[in-house]
Amino acid sequence: MLENLVEMKTLLETLYPSGSRHRLRPGSEIERLLEQPDDSSVQRRRHVEAILAHAQASGWLDHPTRQRLASGDDVVMLAALNELAMARFLELRGARLQANPPGRGRRIGEFLVTLDKTSFFLEVKTLVAPLQDSYRSATQRAISEAAAGIRLPAILEIELQACPSSGVSIRDLRYYLEQAAQQLLSGAHEPPAYIHRSGMALRVLRALPLPSATTETLEVRFVDWQPPQVRTEDRWRERLLRALRGAYEQLPYPAEPSLVAVVNYSEACGSIQPLLAALSSGFLRPNQHRRLSAVGAFEPLPGDAKNESLAIIHNPWAARALPCEALALPDVLQLCLLPASC
């Protein structure tokens, strides 16, 4: 078992040698996967290594796939990784897969899947967080890291108004936070905003003293400096529908059923309800998108393949239905949108 773990780790290190990781964008999913030492990142790293090991054993790690995995870009890398994760999920449950099946002069779907006597085309779409969301997450982590090095039992409320697209100077930031906290705790006026040449801008609102028995270091609490213009659910729905429209263009004419599986990294909308709401808003209806047999929400959770899950929503108006019995598998949930007449 130990030898296998060493081999799997080598696969990931081959794609991203330690000497080349400086080019990764701070806050990206790849940077967090490779560089963060917390338990969650370590668990996810082991999961990725297991996916890569299965892909290599199955013959999926060809040169174009390796190039996509080693691109350093979240969109490209995660799209390739999730295709391999989906292939692994289905293969471990008895499916046979053909990668990049040909069709009418262009590639149609990632895979042609055969389960028992049923075949269907599979397209995998990955929704990643907008760049600004990634920059914000990375900047918040840097601010929290800077504050953790200040021995001052207090909570500092911060408005983060602009986030840099590159790294943050922890030393400069720590000095500013310490001075601002001490100034506010002494009863002085609000300190000036912190504006750095990297593009970061923040403002300290107030400091709340804490008993030293509660904490020994400075903690930060982030306050939204302006209300979001669009709700998180609406942003996610628009991104989902845009991805589904793109996937639909790659689906074949109804010679075989088609499934589009979505993996979401954009927001915390992991349950099936947001997907149902998005599809019920008009994307699936009579005489529209009839080549799409079903939409799936795939969750490649950290850990082994037993923790992964796939929820499938069948299209009742599809020209070719995806038989429910073909996907009566462990960890697969199946639902169907009911026509308005039912």
Could you outline the blueprint of secondary structure elements for this entry?
Blueprint: H1 2-15, H2 29-35, H3 39-58, H4 63-69, H5 74-91, E1 96-99, E2 102-103, E3 106-107, E4 111-115, E5 118-127, H6 131-148, E6 154-162, H7 170-185, E7 194-195, E8 201-209, E9 219-223, H8 232-249, E10 258-264, H9 272-283, E11 294-299, E12 309-314, E13 332-336
Summed up, the helix count is 9
Distance between the termini: 53 Å
Oligomer: single chain
Task: Give the strand tally.
Answer: 13
**CA gyration radius, whole angstroms:** 24 Å
Low-confidence regions: 1-9
Strand order within the widest sheet? Answer: 1-4-5-10-11-12-13
Strand-residue proportion? 15-25%
Percent of residues in helices: 25-40%
Which structural category fits the helices and strands? alpha/beta
Keywords:
38% helix; Trna Endonuclease, Chain: A, domain 1; single chain; seven-stranded mixed sheet; alpha/beta; four-stranded mixed sheet; 342 residues; 2 domains; 9 helices
What does the model show?
The chain has 342 residues and is α/β, with parallel strands linked by helices. Helix content is 38%, strand content 21%. The chain has 2 domains: 63-130 and 232-336, Trna Endonuclease, Chain: A, domain 1 (3-Layer(aba) Sandwich); 131-223, no CATH class. The strands form 3 sheets. Strands 1-4-5-10-11-12-13 form a 7-stranded mixed β-sheet, with helices on both faces. Strands 7-8-6-9 form a 4-stranded mixed β-sheet. A two-stranded antiparallel sheet has the order 2-3. The longest helix has 20 residues, at 39-58. The model is unreliable at 1-9 (pLDDT under 50).
